[in-house]
Amino acid sequence: ATESQEAAGFHPNQKLKLVISVGDHSGPMRVLVTGGSGLVGRAIQHIVKEEGGGKEGEEWTFLSSKDANLMNMEETRAVFQKHRPTHIIHLAAMVGGLFKNMRVNLDFWRNNIYINDNVLQAAHEVGVVKVVSCLSTCIFPDKTTYPIDETMIHNGPPHESNFGYAYAKRMIDVHNRAYFQQHGRYYTAVIPTNVFGPHDNFSIEDGHVLPGLIHKAYIAQKEGKPLVVWGSGTPRRQFIYSLDLARLFLWVLREYNEVEPIILSVGEEDEVSIKEAADAVVAALGFKGEVVYDTSKADGQFKKTASNAKLLRYLPNFSFTPFNKALKDTCDWFVANYDTARK
Ligand SMILES: NC(=O)c1ccc[n+]([C@@H]2O[C@H](COP(=O)([O-])OP(=O)(O)OC[C@H]3O[C@@H](n4cnc5c(N)ncnc54)[C@H](OP(=O)(O)O)[C@@H]3O)[C@@H](O)[C@H]2O)c1
């Protein structure tokens, strides 16, 4: 073990004790955000702007796929060498809802494996001291006990609908542990539940459930038709507002010093059924028509209730935006930006 590993409590052939301190970084903190143009990336941009460009001594750069195709190692190295980051928030990924996942599991697996391997290796090569990557609660085992917590990622196969995405994301945790063990790197990951907010992908076919419902309800309202919800409406989900997630990301980047991942989620009591989510969209958009459930469509995993106990141990006073308020703000944003929104 290196000195820093020993200082962090790591001994070869022992279960890793991954509580670490990123104490060896001084000087300006150059933060590079991959996937900076997506739903989560735009939310982080918003919060950093609210802080007046980040805290003193921080410089922020947000990348999109136009800056570099991170599936390509040479492009990844070149963009990292250009910006010389000291810290990275790694969001870039091939992302999609249930129905897109079911169609192209191979693409989800390969694209995400390439992106993650390139980003973490290039980060190591340019000497990045901390990387915060992004997993998801939909990568946990399908058959599990509830609530799910951070120790259970690798305990069994994921739901068959998204196994490509799920296994690729799980491997980030393997990367992080191995970069720590072999190189003493402090690379970690967060595990958000379903994210929603402004700048989401509102595609009905390929997007996640909430933005898809918002878009469908918007069209149904305009055309005077029923809102058709896919599936039975019974599956349950925890939703986190992108701006709340962004605030938590900044805390993880600045203060969270474990290699082990941390679930970023509202409480178990705030889980809602798809029917409740659809009702909330109807209320937020003032939709007056009929709501019908197309039970010929897949439901996906029934639930993936996650525990935010670890987060609350660190941040007992964090206050989440109430779901209905966050949803109303998202619907208002979608209506105001209908022409340019991703859909
Ligand atoms: N949305 C959710 O509900 C959710 C839940 C849990 C975890 N997550 C995770 O959160 C992270 C961000 O997700 P999101 O919802 O913000 O996704 P998103 O809106 O689809 O944004 C994806 C981002 O990745 C970039 N990107 C995709 N492929 C790339 C490539 N080959 N090279 C470079 N950049 C590439 C995109 O750039 P362009 O804009 O140029 O295309 C975009 O900035 C992901 O890691 C995702 O797995 C999301």
TrEMBL record:
GO molecular function: GDP-L-fucose synthase activity; isomerase activity
Pfam families: Epimerase
Broad enzyme group: oxidoreductase
Keyword NADP: yes
SUPFAM superfamilies xrefs: NAD(P)-binding Rossmann-fold domains
One GO term of the biological process aspect: 'de novo' GDP-L-fucose biosynthetic process
Keywords from the named record: Isomerase, NADP, Oxidoreductase
Pathway entry: Nucleotide-sugar biosynthesis; GDP-L-fucose biosynthesis via de novo pathway; GDP-L-fucose from GDP-alpha-D-mannose: step 2/2
RNA-binding among keywords: no
Domain spans labelled NAD-dependent epimerase/dehydratase: 31-267
Purpose: Catalyzes the two-step NADP-dependent conversion of GDP-4-dehydro-6-deoxy-D-mannose to GDP-fucose, involving an epimerase and a reductase reaction.
Protein family according to the UniProt entry: Belongs to the NAD(P)-dependent epimerase/dehydratase family. Fucose synthase subfamily.
Entry protein name: GDP-L-fucose synthase
Natural source organism: Myripristis murdjan
